[in-house]
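ok trying this again, last paste got cut off
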Amino acid sequence: MDELDRKIYDSFAGRVVRKGATKLIKGSSNVPTYVLEYLLGTYCTSDDEKEIERGIEQVKKILAENYVRNDEVELIRSRIRENGSYNVIDIVDARFNEKHNVYVAHLHNMGISDVIEDSYIKENERLLSDGIWCIVELSYEFNEDEGGAFKINEITPIQMPGFELNEIIDARKNFTKEEWVDLIIRSCGMEPSCFDERVKWHMLARILPMIESNMNLCELGPRSTGKSHIYKELSPNSILLSGGQTTVANLFYNMNRRQVGLVGMWDVVAFDEVAGINFKDHDGVQIMKDYMNSGSFVRGKESIIAKASMVFEGNINQSVESLLKTSTLFEPFPEAMIDTAFLDRIYFYLPGWEVPKLRPEFFTDSWGFISDYFAEFLREMRKRNESCCYHKYFKLGRCLNQRDTMAVNKTVSAMCKLLYPDNNYLKEDIEEILKYALEGRRRVKEQLKKLGGMEFYDTMFSYIDLETMEEKFVSVKEQGGGKLIPEGNSSAGTVYAICNSSSMIGVARIECSLNEKGSGKFDVTGLGKSKELKESVKTAQNYFRANAKHISQTISLDQKDYLTHVEDCMGIGIDSSLSLATYVSYISAALGRPLAAQLMVLGSMSIGGTVNKVDDLANALQVCFDAGAKKILLPMSSAIDIATVPADLFAKFQISFYSSPEDAAVKALGIE
């Protein structure tokens, strides 16, 4: 045992198990971790190596003899007949038989059904859903008149017989924050020494929906990073829905049976592979949207309140960098859910791409909580609310609206309960949690801004220290500090401009260079298939030939070739005019004079030099800001739309207005 193992064992003797023992058995047994550790907690909680080995062998024997495998069903039926009674480990569910006014239990693998006492249902309502793991005593009865039948004598759900929350609260003081984090990660079966601090926090975040009611979380990332492991293996109080097909009756409320669905029976409902989510009912997403917002929904005349948290998991099949350029981080969601009103109800976006793919050495051999014991701790803590824990130290910045505040409060409450169940924390501890909560919510908001435009403009999340009144801003890592438009002057001929596709606003970079021994030819690459883009470049070339001398008599039109490349910086698929920006690029290259630093050119022109105003000015300026622009060249005709731009966004730029293409070139190049 290392020092932490000894501290864990001394503080929680009988409540912890060596996770290496779980690993030894798990490979040969297809049952959830919490089932294995329920048995290990009964036979294998000593720190004596020989007793641990004997306990492991006993658990293996129980699983070999009592766990029902599909190919051994008939063998176990024979044992029940020969022995009179026999214990099996199986998934059990129950249904109400309204004709006979009884509950009938069904064993999934054994295929045995029998009437059970109502008391089992009252104590374990989840028997009425998809079932729970149980130890079941079965017998076989036969008589000449009625024939033979298997009977259920007793059902024992696999869960801790007793739990005292104060055990954990009182023992928390024995651990530093770092030791407590490592204990939680070991309890999930992982080895904390293999991960850096940030990855550890992501692993903790996966647990948050289990400790906080109605916590809506999303995690998208590469395959094999353990996204679904927590919800499938750690707790008997969560359910993982694979495949995506579900119904309103199954998930929310069955009107025929007048029975609440999964959200009323489980603490967490997790969707594996979000891309496959498909409601057979046309109103499924709308009901889910309502539930995620308020924790309640209406079916018929019934208004039902439930506490289940919703978790959405899925795979990202390309790099985050390319995804951010071409789409959003919600791209794996089905089309029906790519709706800003729905996605706005996700409180925390966990960046799964920052979690490494699982390797054998990532699984721990050290001591951790018995999974079922830890699950009971999480369930008990759901009754508490710690969302106000930061109010005496900090307040949120003005960019957070009511839903943002609710999301941050949920995350802060959950993380505080997980890390400091005894409420013994310092100001810097709460600040660390608050920053992480703000980051997870801002990640959602940044994607909503790309989908919904100015409605979700306020993404500059911050918090204010009430002691110093200093405002601190929180960014998201994948946005990075790198901007599309670098600081300082670009080379002559380089122009950044706003461009459009059918549904998105992006940034284009136009680079023009000269062949000093040419004949006045124009070569352009990077135009793609867009007819409008190609025609706009021709417009710029024709206008440049006809009017370049108005800018400077030194510009050569016949002895030099103009080589131009157009780059779609955000990969949106340009399908709009870049005529004016291309014209300015030609002037810049011809004079060998760069544009002003961090300047973005907006607007377009006709072949006759008529300047067109900018469409959707507010969103265009937001894209400029995100790209790193500090100066804007804007058509005078767009001045009328300035009222549509938020004042604080408009104030971030130095704005120069132009009235003609020549005026634009002069001001862009700073020609006196």
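PB: full thing came through this time. The CA atoms of residues 339 and 451 lie 8 Å apart.
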